[in-house]
Amino acid sequence: MRLLRNGQTRAQHSSRHSGSSRARILWSVKHSDWGTTMLSGKRILLIVTGGIAAFKTPELIRLLRKSGAAVTPVLTRAAEEFVTPLTLSALAEEKVYSDLFDLTDEAEMGHIQLSRSADLVVVAPATADMMAKMANGLADDLASTLLLATDTPVLVAPAMNVRMWQHAATARNAAQLRADGVQFVGPADGDMACGEYGPGRMSEPSEILAAIEAMLADGPLKGRHILVTSGPTHEPIDPVRYIANRSSGAQGTALARALADLGARVTFVTGPADVPPPEGMDVVPVTTAVDMLGAVQAALPADAAVFAAAVADWRMASASDQKLKKSKDGQPVLEFAENPDILATVSQMGAGRPGLVVGFAAETNDVIENATAKRARKQCDWIVANDVSPATGIMGGSENAVTLISADDAESWPRMGKDDVARRLAARIAAELDGK
Ligand code: C5P
C-alpha cells in the first residue's frame, strides 16, 4: 500500500477528490514525496559498464530497491574491475549477469528475454565506449547485445573524462542516441577521479533515481516528449564580459517539473539561470541564443515545445577574443547582429513541427495587444503573456499573472505562484495533446 506524506493511503486521498481535480492533485505530487515505493512492481535492467563511477552503482541499487523496484544487474567485463558481482547481487538480491555465452542462462531465459522483461534499461555508468557501441548498433558482449535487442526505453548516465565527453565523436554519438530516443541523465560538472574538472562526472544516484521515477511515472503525458527552454542567454562581448537579462529561469523550471510530474519526458534546454535545473529530466545547458537553437533542433522531434527562455535578441557581430581595453581614442562601439528567433523558427518549420508550440511574451505595456500580435507574427499556437513592468515584481519574483492567448481566445488567470501557473499550464497542455 502506498502512503502519501500525510499518512493517508492513495484510496483515502482519492476519495476526497473527483474528476480532473483529483487527477491533478495525484499527479502533481512531487515524485520523491510518494514515500518509498514509487517504483513498486517495476523491473529495472541495470547495465554497469567499466568506469570508476561504478563505485556509485551499489548506492543506486539500494535506492531503487528502497523505491520498490526489482533490479537485474548486468556487468561488462571491464565493470567487474571496478565493482564486484557479489556486491551488486547482494544488494539487488538477484543474480548478476555478465557473460553472453553462459549457456545455462541462455537456456533459462535468453538474452532477448532478459532485456524485454524489464520496464526500463538503465546504463549507469555509461562509458564513452558503450555509448559508441550503442550509437552504432554493435553487439559484442552481453550488455551491448541486450541494448541492441531491447524495445524497452533506455536511460544512460554517462561517466567519463571531460575531454572524452567533449570529443567530437562522443558528441556525435550522444546526438545519435538522443535521436534514437535514448534518454540522458547528466553528466554533471565537477571534480573527476582523474583530477580534472568539467562535465563528465556521473550524476549522483539520487538524481538517477529521480530520472528513472520520472520515466516510469504514470500520468496524462506519459509517452509524450516535451521540450522546454528556460533562463536567460549570455552573449559574449569579450572573454570576460557578456550581455544578459534578468530572467531567473524560475517559471521555465517550474513548468518543466510540472510537465514531468504529469508523466512527460522533458528535455530542458536552459541558459545560465539562477535557479537549479529540475531533476529527473534531460537537462541541456547552453550559453548563447545560437547554442540554444542548436540544442532545440537536436532535441526534436517533440509532441510539444514551450519556449520560456528570455533569449537575447542581439549578439555581438563579432565577439572579441581578447579583453577590450580602455583607449584614449574614446568609447568602444559595439556592433550587433540579430539572433535567430528560436520560437519563430520552430513554429514555422513545417515537417517535424511539434504539435503544440507555446511561446511566452514578457511585456511592459499593452500586454494583450502586443502578445496577440506576437503570436500571429511568430506563428506559435499559444502565447503566455505577462506584465513584467517593475511595479508588478514578477521578473525575479515568485508570483506571476498571465494571459493565455490562442488563435481565438485570450484567457486571463488570477495572480498566483509560478508553481501554480506551471501546473495549470501543464494541465492545459496535457488536455490539448489528449485531443490530438
Ligand atoms: O520577441 P520576444 O522576445 O518578445 O518573444 C518572446 C518569445 O519568443 C519567448 O517565448 C522566447 O522564448 C521566444 N524567443 C526565442 N528566440 C528569440 C527571441 C525570443 O525563442 N531570439
Compute the gyration radius: what is it? 23 Å
**CATH fold descriptor of the largest domain:** Rossmann fold
Q: What is the count of distinct domains?
A: 2
Do you know the CATH architecture of the largest domain? 3-Layer(aba) Sandwich
Please provide a written account of the structure.
The protein has 436 residues and is α/β, with parallel strands linked by helices. It folds into 2 domains: 226 residues, CoaB-like (Rossmann fold, 3-Layer(aba) Sandwich); 173 residues, 3-Layer(aba) Sandwich (Rossmann fold). It is built from 16 helices and 21 strands. The strands form 6 sheets. It has an 8-stranded mixed sheet, with helices on both faces. Strands 2-1-3-4-5 form a 5-stranded parallel sheet, with helices on both faces. The chain has a two-stranded antiparallel sheet with strand order 6-7. Helix 3 runs parallel beside helix 4 and helix 3 packs across helix 11. The N terminus is likely disordered. The site of cytidine-5'-monophosphate (C5P) has 14 residues, from helix 14 and strand 16.
